[in-house]
Each structure stands twice: as structure tokens, then as C-alpha cells.
Design goal:
Length: 524
């Protein structure tokens, strides 16, 4: 009994110590979260110079132009498979609608590889490093039967519930909003007394939806051949998300500072064939099925904490509501909890690990013949903290069958993480322009799970950002590459005003601020 009592006292002491430590940690977390109110990692104050905002009379003309742009079906289906006649019709539409851009002495317009466009805006201060604004004129195909309204009708219609007028059409978000927003801003500047100091480029590729090799790939090679190095690049990317992130009552403008890579693998298995009435014990299809199951069941490890995700929540924490504020401000303590929460939903899970999708499976030619071979296509989207080799090694490990052959079909390494934070001039310019037009939004670094044309400019700058100036909720997001893609009339005015503000702000040297947090190029 004495020994039993001694054990009980030891156990009680250990439990008491653990409870005390846990209480202390929670207390520290609460205090840290409660003192975040004065910490603000946002940028509001880059001066665009003494210029007026875009006038209402000009903004009023933009929805009709956007509707006309959406009525031109610039569809790309595969590499080299584009609606070339519509691509050229879109070029002519731009020339007719924005004549000052195409006729200004300091703006050089080049048609690259027949269907892409490159604008070179020459400034008077060559010591200022140029930058690049990007978009793409091609769009994905549509299933017209599933649209509420004609996707090529160029329609502007009021919402039956709210009365808000929307511009309908494929490409409204991805990415004619970016193309039209940029050229609308440039048109107003060109027809006014704008005198550029900093040179910059505008690139509109024609095949981003099918990897961009013939469009952005050619433009990038042309610029590199001219020895161009860029201060920063801004391309399509994440929108301003409204009520999408739990515990964040205000919109969140996530700027993509990196994007995932991709890897397509062919998985092949050989085995015994024969008549289905006498099947082999170890058929190729059975082993392929086992490998496919393992790939789907055993996910790649979480990379949370290795990439921009930690700083994303650091930027969000000061504006978060309780108890999310305590969690976001103390990831050193709540990292396992955050990983578990993010892993439960497919969209957030995709931001913290390399994903695996089995997209094509092939085997057999007849119902009573056992196939001697079976194959599957595996598509990975690679987290920036993992290398191509690490992904393949992990696949071999979880398949755990040396007879399963993996062959690389196509790949792209994940992009380096671009520098972000108040110490980075390009980041300051973009975030200041965002806050000018979305004053309640939080700007924060994010990971783009898809891919853009920025891959072709990685050798020209380390500062590449991906953002689209559009407020969206969860319901809006599903229309991208889906049905009933649309934007409000006001949204096109905001987009044009955003790029207008950015061009003006970038027309001078922008000094960095020395405030943390931030990220330097090449770090994870």
C-alpha cells in the first residue's frame, strides 16, 4: 500500500506539473494575442503623385468595353490548337477601343509569335529598373448548355435579387479582367499628360491555359535576348477573398508569392495474362489497384511551416476574432492543431502539402481476358518545400512494390518564394494599391496552387507576385473555369483604377520600410 501511495503521489505531481505548464502556455498565448492590436504589417502610404482618380465619365464607358471583350471567344484547347481567327479579332478590338495606347510615341507595340502582344512603355529615367504587368487573352472552353446566359453574348444583366449589374462571359475573371484592367488604365494615361519616368512592359500571352509556351514563353525569350532585367512582375493570381478564411471578418487579399510545381508520372505494371476463368493470383490490375490505393490513402507529408503559410497567419492575426486570434498568433504552440484543421478541407489541404491525383487508368481490352499490363497517370502539384526527387522517392516508398514502374511524363519545379513584406519595394507598391481600392482588406502572402505564365520570367527577377484586383466569395470562386463566370460592372472600374494607381505609384523609386515580418528571396 505504501508503494501504491507513493506511485499515486508521483503521478499526481506529474499531472500537476503538466497542467501547470499547459496553463502557463495558454496564458502566454492569450497575452501574446491580446497585445497584437498595435501590430500592423500592412502598407498604406505609397504616394502615387499628384494625379486625379479615374473620372466617373471614363469609368462609365468600361463595362460595355468589357462586355465586348467577353463576346470574343478566344479559346485555347491545346498547344497550337487555338481559335486563331478570334485571337486576331481580339487584337483588332484592342486597337479600335484603345487607340492612344497603340499610337503613343513612347509605347511600342509588338505582336509576338502571331497572337501575343508586348507593350514597351519607355520612361525618361533609365536608372529606374523596369517592371512587368501580365495577363492572358485566351480562355478555356465552355459547356454552353450549363450556362444561365450565353457565355459569348457580351451580356450586362441585373441580378434578379440584388439588382447589381453583372457582365457575363467566359474569361470575365480568368483573365480578361486583368487584360482589360491594365489596358484601360494605360489608355487613360496615354491620352492624358502622363510622362513616364520608369519604363515598364505589358505582356498579354495567348496560350496560358495550355501552358503558355507559345505566348509568354516567346515574349520572355525576346526580353531576355534584349538583356532585360525586371524590378518585379505582377500576373494573375489570387483575388480579395471575402469571408472565406475562418475568424477573419474583413476581406483578405492574398498575394501569391510562389506557386506549386507539377509532376505527371506514368505508373505501369506487368503481370500474367490469360482467360478470366482461370485468373492469375497476382494480376497486373490487382497490383496497380494496390499502388493507386496507397497513393490516395497515404498523403504526402504536411509542409506547414515551410513556406509562406506561417506568415500568412501572422499577417492575419491582428485582425482575427477570438479564439482564432489566439491560434493564428501562436503557431509555435498550435501548429499541430492548424495542420489538422487545414487537412480536413481540400482547398486548404492543397496549400500545405504536395497533392496527388490519379487522373487516367487503363487496362484490358475484353471482359474475359486478363490484361498483361495496366497503367495509370498520376498528377502531383508540388509544394515549394519539396523537390521533384523527394516526391518521386515518397511515391516509391508508399507504393512499396518494386515491380511498379514510375516514369516522368512532364514536370515543373515549384517556384522560388518571392520576397515579401515592408522591406520589399514591389510588395509595398502592390499592397498600397490594394489598400487604396480595398481599404478594409488585409494583405498577406499566399501560395498559388495552380500555375501561371510567370514560370517564363523566373530568370529575370526574384520578385514575382500573383494577384487579381477582384472581391470574391466562396460561391464566386467555383465559376472560374466553371459555369456562369461573371463580374459586376463596378469590378471592372476597380480593376482599371487599381492598375492606374499601381502604374503611377511605380513611376518613381520606392524606398523600403524596415519592419518585420518579411521574407527574403530564396528563403522558405
Amino acid at each position: 500500500m505504501v508503494a501504491y501511495g507513493r506511485v499515486c503521489r508521483v503521478v499526481a505531481t506529474v499531472v500537476g506539473v503538466l497542467l501547470g505548464v499547459a496553463t502557463l502556455l495558454i496564458l502566454v498565448a492569450i497575452i501574446r494575442a491580446a497585445t497584437l492590436e498595435e501590430m500592423d504589417y500592412q502598407e498604406y502610404g505609397v504616394d502615387p503623385g499628384v494625379r486625379e482618380e479615374l473620372p466617373e465619365a471614363y469609368l462609365a464607358t468600361l463595362p460595355e468595353l468589357m462586355a465586348r471583350a467577353l463576346s470574343i471567344p478566344t479559346v485555347s484547347l491545346d498547344r497550337g490548337d487555338y481559335d486563331t481567327e478570334e485571337m486576331l479579332r481580339f487584337h483588332q478590338f484592342l486597337r479600335d477601343s484603345f487607340p492612344d495606347v497603340f499610337n503613343k510615341s513612347y509605347i511600342k507595340v509588338e505582336v509576338v509569335n502571331t497572337y501575343s502582344l508586348l507593350f514597351t512603355v519607355t520612361g525618361g529615367s533609365p536608372e529606374l529598373k523596369p517592371y512587368l504587368l501580365m495577363g492572358h487573352i485566351d480562355v478555356v472552353p465552355v459547356d454552353e448548355d450549363k450556362w444561365t446566359h450565353d457565355p459569348w453574348g457580351g451580356l450586362i444583366l441585373p441580378d434578379p435579387v440584388t439588382g447589381t449589374k453583372y457582365i457575363w462571359g467566359r474569361g470575365a475573371i480568368d483573365n480578361k479582367l486583368g487584360v482589360m484592367g491594365i489596358i484601360m488604365a494605360l489608355q487613360y494615361l496615354a491620352k492624358s499628360d502622363f510622362q513616364p519616368a520608369r519604363s515598364f512592359f505589358v505582356a498579354f500571352g495567348h496560350d496560358e491555359e495550355v501552358r503558355g509556351r507559345d505566348g509568354a514563353g516567346h515574349i520572355a525569350r525576346l526580353l531576355q535576348g534584349r538583356g532585360v532585367q525586371l524590378d518585379f512582375v505582377l500576373d494573375e493570381g489570387m483575388p480579395v477573398l471575402d469571408k472565406v478564411i475562418p475568424g477573419i471578418p474583413v476581406p483578405t487579399a492574398m498575394i501569391g508569392v510562389t506557386e506549386k510545381g507539377y509532376l505527371t508520372l506514368k505508373m505501369e505494371v506487368e503481370g500474367e495474362g490469360g482467360h478470366s476463368s482461370m485468373p492469375p493470383r497476382d494480376a497486373a490490375v490487382t497490383r496497380l489497384a494496390s499502388a493507386v490505393y496507397n497513393l490516395g490513402h497515404y498523403r504526402h507529408p504536411s509542409m506547414f511551416g515551410r513556406g509562406p503559410a506561417f506568415d500568412l497567419f501572422t499577417y492575419l492575426a491582428p485582425k482575427a476574432s477570438w479564439p482564432h486570434k489566439m491560434i493564428y498568433a501562436n503557431l509555435w504552440l498550435f501548429k499541430p492543431l492548424m495542420e489538422a484543421i487545414m487537412s480536413r478541407k481540400r482547398d486548404s489541404d492543397a496549400t500545405i502539402r504536395t497533392t496527388t491525383s490519379v487522373t487516367i487508368v487503363r487496362a484490358g481490352v475484353k471482359e474475359n481476358v486478363v490484361p498483361v499490363s495496366a497503367s495509370a497517370i498520376i498528377n502531383h502539384r508540388i509544394h515549394p518545400a519539396q523537390s521533384l526527387e523527394e516526391v518521386i522517392d515518397y511515391d516509391h516508398h508508399i507504393i512499396n512494390d518494386p515491380s511498379v514502374k514510375l516514369t516522368v511524363q512532364d514536370y515543373l519545379e515549384a517556384h522560388p518564394v518571392s520576397p515579401y513584406g515592408p522591406e520589399v519595394a514591389g510588395w509595398r507598391l502592390i499592397t498600397a494599391a490594394i489598400h487604396h481600392h480595398f481599404p478594409s482588406a488585409i494583405t498577406a502572402p499566399g501560395l498559388l496552387v495552380g500555375n501561371t505564365d510567370t514560370r517564363y520570367y523566373l530568370n529575370m527577377t526574384s520578385d514575382i507576385y500573383r494577384f487579381v484586383p477582384l472581391l470574391m466569395n466562396a460561391q464566386d470562386m467555383v465559376t472560374i473555369h466553371g459555369h456562369d463566370e461573371r463580374i459586376s460592372e463596378a469590378s471592372i472600374g476597380v480593376a482599371a483604377s487599381f492598375y492606374y494607381h499601381l502604374i503611377l505609384s511605380a513611376n518613381r523609386e520606392v524606398p523600403p520600410l524596415h519592419t518585420q515580418p518579411g521574407h527574403r528571396s530564396g528563403e522558405l
